[in-house]
Design goal:
It is a single chain. The chain is of the alpha/beta class. The chain has one domain: Rossmann fold (3-Layer(aba) Sandwich). It is built from ten helices and nine strands. Helix 4 links the parallel strand 4 and strand 5. It binds NADP nicotinamide-adenine-dinucleotide phosphate. NADP nicotinamide-adenine-dinucleotide phosphate binds next to helix 1 and strand 7.
């Protein structure tokens, strides 16, 4: 089995790569992210190969495909589109530039990589794609609108792709984490206080969700599972949800990488 994990240099991606190696001994992993030293270290631990690439770059999808063709016979059984990032800002402060920055890494990069690799996935069927979205792709908070917009887009596109690729033997699954403490999303404001610590989930739960979607055909997994109720509440009682979210105020605008609770 050949499995490609983007965003494998830290957080959920690195944890999921390790979990895949444990669950499927013999899997050939391909790790993708920008930080080469981190990829090299994890690749040597797991016997994997890697491509150090900024997925926003024009040539990144072709470079990843060329790597698969050269080192893995052009086969691909599982693509996990996990790379992502968040920078907090209200729309008044961040404007189109911040929306676009999120779309580039959280949506366009997934679409472009999938476009480049879909022929390999179809040729390797039965195969699977897992798109790591977010609960923020179902519900939006002040200060995180750009991030939410990119994840809403990812979910909408994934749902259609799921229907289109079924007949080609390519399963498309979605993973929607709530809060998981990682390097890019430390959730420090939540873990600091006992009253809110419980809402932060674990990387183990996120990786289990990725494996369910990627290996066992799950269509959609929230992390943790009860967070599936949040979008239900958003649809049934939008006024109530807005009032509740409004109480938390607007996440501090800072056009720096999130360091907070935008997941
Ligand atoms: N943690 C949460 O609470 C949470 C909640 C909901 C959704 N998510 C989603 O889960 C996914 C993983 O996030 P995480 O929590 O594990 O955060 P993380 O530790 O910051 O990991 C993000 C990964 O994406 C890679 N990446 C970022 N920009 C990239 C680029 N331009 N090109 C290539 N790779 C890039 C990073 O690697 P390099 O820096 O080395 O490039 C890193 O490996 C993201 O899609 C995130 O939106 C997380």
């Amino acid at each position: 089995m050949i499995a490609l994990m983007t965003g494998a240099s830290s957080g959920i991606g690195a944890a999921a790569a390790r979990a895949l190696a444990r669950e499927r001994p013999g899997v050939q992993l391909v790790l993708v992210a920008r930080r080469e030293p981190k990829l090299r270290e994890l690749a040597s631990e797991l016997g994997a190969t890697y491509v150090a690439a900024d997925l926003v770059d024009d040539d990144a999808p072709a470079r990843v495909r060329a790597h698969l063709e050269e080192h893995h016979g052009g086969r691909l059984d599982l693509l996990v589109n996990n790379a992502g990032a968040s920078w907090r800002a209200t729309f008044a402060d961040g404007g189109f530039e911040n929306v676009n920055r999120h779309m580039e890494i959280n949506f366009n990069a997934q679409v472009r990589l999938t476009e480049a690799l879909l022929p390999l996935l179809r040729a390797s069927e039965p195969s699977a794609i897992v798109n790591v979205a977010s609960v923020a792709g179902r519900i939006s908070r002040g200060g995180a609108g750009s991030y939410s917009a990119s994840k809403f887009a990812l979910i909408g596109w994934s749902d259609a792709l799921h229907l289109e690729e079924r007949e080609h033997g390519v399963h498309v699954g979605l993973v929607l984490p709530g809060f998981v403490a990682t390097e890019g999303f430390p959730a420090a404001e939540l873990t600091r206080r006992r009253a809110t610590r419980w809402v932060v989930s674990t990387q183990d739960k996120a990786t289990a969700a990725i494996l369910d979607a990627g290996l066992r055909g799950a269509a959609e997994r929230y992390v943790p599972r009860p967070w599936a109720l949040i979008p239900v509440l958003r649809v049934l009682a939008p006024g109530l949800v807005r009032r509740l979210l409004g109480r938390g105020g607007v996440a501090k605008a800072s056009l720096t990488k999130t360091g907070g609770d935008d997941s």
